[in-house]
Amino acid sequence: MVWDQVQLRSSSGNHPLVSGHPNRPIPKLMVCSILFVSLTYLLYTLKLLTTSAQQTFHHTPFTSYLRRSTSFTSAPLVLNQTAVTAPLHHGRRDVREKQKVVMQMGQAPPKPKPTEIHDVVFGIAASSKLWQQRKEYIKIWYKPNQLRDNRTLPPFRVSSDTSKFPYTNRKGHRSAIRISRIVTETLKMNMDNVRWFVMGDDDTVFITENLVRILRKYDHTQYYYIGSLSESHIQNIFFSYGMAYGGGGFAISYPLAKALAKMQDRCIQRYPGLYGSDDRMQACMAELGVPLTKELGFHQYDVYGNLFGLLAAHPVTPLVSLHHLDVVEPIFPNVSRVQALQRLMLPTNLDSAGIMQQSICYDKTKSWTISVSWGFAVQVFRGIFSPREIEMPSRTFLNWYKRADYTAYAFNTRPVSRNPCQKPFVFYMSSVRMDSELNKTVSEYERHHVPHPLCRWKMANPDELETVIVHKKPDPHLWDRSPRRNCCRVMESKERRRMVIDVGVCKDGERQCKWGKPRYLYRLCKKVQLHTILDLHLVWEKCF
């Protein structure tokens, strides 16, 4: 039909658009030529399409490239294009292998390995005058087989000369400038595979497993300045509530240490009137715009006296460090400071995550309140105390500023007892072992005999107890979950002078509070002669 319209008429119908006689042979020859060329082109096109389809069936990377081009980034696309140029004889199996490589390359990059203790470099500030005495503290926590150096003690370094830096604080010592530059000088040693720098003093004891647990929470490729405050409110006011105290230890990520090294010397020049090394460090952190990330497990312990009240009510966080061990009494009675810390390491080696963690339970039949600080001590109280009361540290210690009273602490405290009958019976950890059959630790706590006032309360007397046995399953993933105290349960015991307690993860619906009958508590209230609203509140408070 198309070719019938080759010789068309004009709109008037009188003159043909193509000149010439219709019977002449030239137009017929043109038609034949056009038909021949068209047929040849059609056959060539069909053959080309057939060949292309066969190649596509046997070799599919190009199809894969088109199908996946909307879901991959540019790097996998380059790999696909490379696969297109591969020889045809590789076949389908080779194509699938290449596609598998492309899929793997298109996935998100693998997560970095978690931080280990060998990723940490410790910088310990020490004095040559006190080294013979305080090196014993370092031996307690330093693990040559796990850390970067296989010596019994870490290698020594003498800090560089700082006489060019001004120091105008009359109450301090200019050695603080040298201590503040430990991180920078350690960085310049160009150690490999360092993620964190951790500062401490020679009288600081670290629980290294818990330190690693804390550091794993944070991205070591970012700027982090991690530590904690002083226990003294006056100290924090005088220095800063945004400063990590160096004795309790603090951690600085590697990128932050690099940034600090570039500006620290100029920064120190601007603060000649500061007292110590840690406030100089915090001043430079402020100039870098990096705030303190607070972790309560770093303990400065700016207190005097007995740490029992603080340790027996440790906050719900891993115990990371202890400081000022030369100032306070030994944490276990009747032994030296070093021996007491060596004893603490026994349960730490079995369950570092649970060391010092408090659990609260009740013996309803005897109306006793029991507080377990695992690996350290057990307290037994006459009467029923709320968890809100027991989780507060009792004031067995004195403020760093001796003229200050209990209101000068940076946390809540409570008296050791409000009534002579409420003085706790204390049992200190004496031994611990692992029961392989039960897969539990078995720790034994012996009674610490001190005089107790005469009590006329008509209830069971804890004075009859001599030993407390605590069963606890090690829980290395305790801090991978949301923070919560463990629960404890008083078990049956065949021996009258022995109490058996089981400590573990709280069960569904289990509360750490079991009150007695209200009428009995009311009668107890009258006998005890409670005089304050606070005391009544302790008896009647609801437990959540």
From TrEMBL:
Domain of life: Eukaryota
Pfam families: DUF604
InterPro entries referenced in this protein's UniProt entry, alphabetically: DUF604 (IPR006740)
Protein name: Fringe-related protein
